[in-house]
TrEMBL record:
Enhances distal genes transcription elongation in a specialized subset of operons that encode extracytoplasmic components. One of its GO terms (molecular function) is DNA binding. Pfam families: NusG. Keywords: DNA-binding, Transcription, Transcription antitermination, Transcription regulation. NCBIfam families: PRK09014.1, RfaH. It comes from Halochromatium salexigens. Interacts with both the nontemplate DNA and the RNA polymerase (RNAP). One of its GO terms (biological process) is DNA-templated transcription elongation. InterPro entries: NGN-like_dom (IPR006645), NGN_dom_sf (IPR036735), NusG-like (IPR043425), Transcription_antiterm_RfaH (IPR010215), Translation_prot_SH3-like_sf (IPR008991). The gene is rfaH. Coiled coil: none annotated. This is Transcription antitermination protein RfaH. GO terms for cellular component: cytosol. Residues 8-107 form the NusG-like N-terminal domain.
Length: 169
């Protein structure tokens, strides 16, 4: 290994205790470590209502940026929420910087679907109507939309989750 590799910080993977990734992130950041916990927005049904919720992209795993022979790795084991440093054999494996940057960009781009306008053409991405074109009719609450489909030479109104619809430009 060359000496330059020891001077440049790399990303490593930490496993958190079950459902404690946020706690591990907070405690590691309090100790001065640079930590990345990728999160995504998902649709959940709670109390018979659809709601958007944010959750970790990789449940129970987070990334930490460390300098191999410079940073103090010992506090990691006793940090609340942290289970262990992921290793292969006895060696922690560095994650490619470009992969981490790509994940960061993807997470930053997920700001939610753009607003649709009545009469706008859309494509259905998922479900039994996947691949079909439709016309956006109106929103139905926060999570669903009414679409106008042409099926069997007749216009039919269907209601689908907003996440299954993409605007066609």
């Amino acid at each position: 290994m060359d000496s330059l590799q020891h001077r440049v910080p790399s990303w490593y993977v930490l496993q958190s205790k079950p459902r404690q990734a946020e706690r591990a992130q907070l405690n590691l950041e309090r100790q001065g470590y640079v930590v990345f916990l990728p999160r995504i927005t998902v649709e959940r049904i709670q109390r018979q209502r659809r709601q958007l919720a944010e959750e970790p992209l990789f449940p129970n795993y987070l990334f930490i940026r460390l300098q191999r022979w410079v940073d103090n790795w010992y506090p990691l084991r006793s940090t609340r929420g942290v289970a262990r440093l992921v290793t292969f054999g006895q060696e922690p494996v560095a994650i490619d910087q470009q992969l981490i940057e790509a994940i960061m960009q993807r997470c930053a781009q997920r700001t939610g679907p753009p607003e649709l306008q009545p009469g706008q053409p859309v494509e259905i991405l998922d479900g039994p109507f996947a691949g079909l074109s439709a016309i956006f009719k109106a929103p139905q609450g926060e999570q669903r939309v009414h679409l106008l489909l042409n099926l069997l030479q007749r216009p039919i109104t269907v209601s689908l989750p907003r996440a299954q619809v993409c605007a066609v430009s």
